[in-house]
Amino acid sequence: MSGMPAVRRVFRFFMKMTREKPIRVGGQAVIEGVMMRSLDYVAVAVRKADGIIVLKKDRFVSLTKRKRFLGFPLIRGAVTLIESLVLGIRALNFSSRIAMSEHDGKETGKPDRPEWQQALMTGGTLLLSLMFGFFLFFYIPLILTEFTGIRDGVLFNLIDGGIRLSIFLLYLGLISLWKDIRRFFEYHGAEHKSIFAFEAGSPLTLEGVKAFTTHHPRCGTSFLLIVMLVSILVFMLLGRPEGIQQRLLRFLFIPVIGGISYEIILLSTQKYGRALAAVLTVPGLWLQRITTKDPDEKQIEVALVALKAALGMETDATVEPAG
Fold first, then answer.
1. Strand duo 319-321 + 53-59: pairing
2. Measured in Å, how far apart are the chain's first and last C-alpha atoms?
3. 239-282: per-residue pLDDT in tens?
4. pTM for this prediction
5. Which residues contact 47 (CB under 8 A, 6 or more apart)?
6. pLDDT value at position 8?
7. For residue 207, is it within any domain?
8. What tens digit of pLDDT does each residue of 193-243 get?
9. Among candidates 259, 278, 254, 276, which has minimal Cα distance to 267?
C-alpha cells in the first residue's frame, strides 16, 4: 500500500495538467452549415436557399462537468466521444430539416414531430452509426486478418491495424469524390478557419478569418487517426482472438481506446506535450488535405454566426431564431 500516495499524486498532477488550458471551442460541419460547441453553448447555423441564416442555440454542460466521476481520466474521453456523437447527429438532423424545408415550402426548421420521437430517431441514428463504424473499421479488418492464418499476436494485430487504417483512408478518399461531400468539406474548412481566428485573437470578421488555414491540429480527423494507432497497441495486449467471445471482448475495449486517445489529445495541447503534439499533428494535418476545402465568404459567414452564438456573442448576420 506504500505506493498508493504516489499513485494519487500522479493522478492529481495529470488532472491538473489537463485542466490548465481547456479546449474552449470545437465544432463540425453540417448540411449547408456549421455546428460550434463551447463550454456553455451548442450553436448550429445553417444557410437556407434564400440566403437567410437559421440559428439554433442551446445551453449545454457536459456530463463530465455535472458528474465528477465522469470527469476522471479515461472515463471522460468515452463520455465526451458519446456526447459529441449525439450532438453531431442532432445538428445534422436540424440542418437536414432546414434543407428539406427549401423543397417542401416550409418556412421554418422547427421539428414537426414530438420531442420523444425526435429523441428516438436520434438514438436510432446513433446506434446505426456505431454499428456501421464497428463493422467497417473493426469487424471487417479482423475477419480479413484471420484469413491470413497468422498465429503470432503481435504480427496479427499489426496487420489488423494496417487493414483498418487502409479502409479508413480509402473510405475518406471515396466519399471526397462526391460533390455534396466536397461542399460539406468546405464548411469543415470554414469551421477551422473561424476557430483558428478566435484562438489567435483575430477579429471575428470575414477579413479577420480568411487569412487562416483550413488545417487545424485539433481536428476530429486527427483524433480518429490516433484512435486507429492506439487500437493497434491495445489489441496487441489482447493477442490473437480465438472464437466469438474474444472478438466481442475486443469490441468492449473500444471505449477504452477512445478514452486513451482523448487523453493523448489533451496531453498534446499542454506545454508538457509539445513534442508529442509535433509528432501527432503531422499525419492529421496531411489527412485534412482530404477532409477540408477552402470555403467561400458565405460559408465563412455561417461559421462565424455559429461561433459567435456558441461564445454568447451577438451575431452580425441576418439570423432567424429556430426552436
1. parallel
2. 55
3. 888 878 888 888 888 888 888 888 887 776 666 556 666 676 77
4. 0.80
5. 32, 33, 53, 54, 298, 299, 302
6. 53
7. yes
8. 999 999 888 999 999 999 898 988 778 777 888 888 888 899 988 888 887
9. 276
Which residues constitute the domain of residue 316?
Answer: 25-321
Confirm whether 47 is domain-assigned. yes
User: Looking up cell 487562416, which residue turns up?
Assistant: 212
Q: Is residue 4 part of a domain?
A: no
Q: Quickly count: other Cβ atoms within 10 Å of residue 282's Cβ.
A: 12
Q: Give the separation between CA 238 and CA 231, rounded to whole angstroms.
A: 11
Q: How many domains does the chain have?
A: 1
Whether 182 is in a domain gets the answer: yes
- Round to whole Å and give the CA distance between 83 and 28: 13
According to DSSP, the residues that pair with 168 across neighbouring strands are none
From residue 19, alpha-carbon distances to 80, 119, 201, 271, 274 in Å are 15, 32, 21, 12, 16
Beta strands (DSSP E) in the chain are 26-30, 33-37, 41-47, 53-59, 319-321
Give the residue among 286, 188, 46, 58 at the shortest CA–CA distance from 196: 188
Quickly count helices (H) and strands (E) in the chain. 13, 5
Cell numbers for 321, please give them.
431564431
